[in-house]
Design brief:
single chain, 28 residues, mainly alpha, 1 helix, 0% strand
Length: 28
């Protein structure tokens, strides 16, 4: 369970980082 929760949190953080980077670059 702990690993699944950690994976979920990591996924959300990565998605947020990618979204911010993409918006700065202007690709998306």
């Amino acid at each position: 369970m702990a690993e699944a929760i950690a994976f979920d949190i990591a996924g959300e953080l990565i998605t947020k980082l990618i979204s911010r980077a993409s918006s700065r670059i202007g690709v998306w």
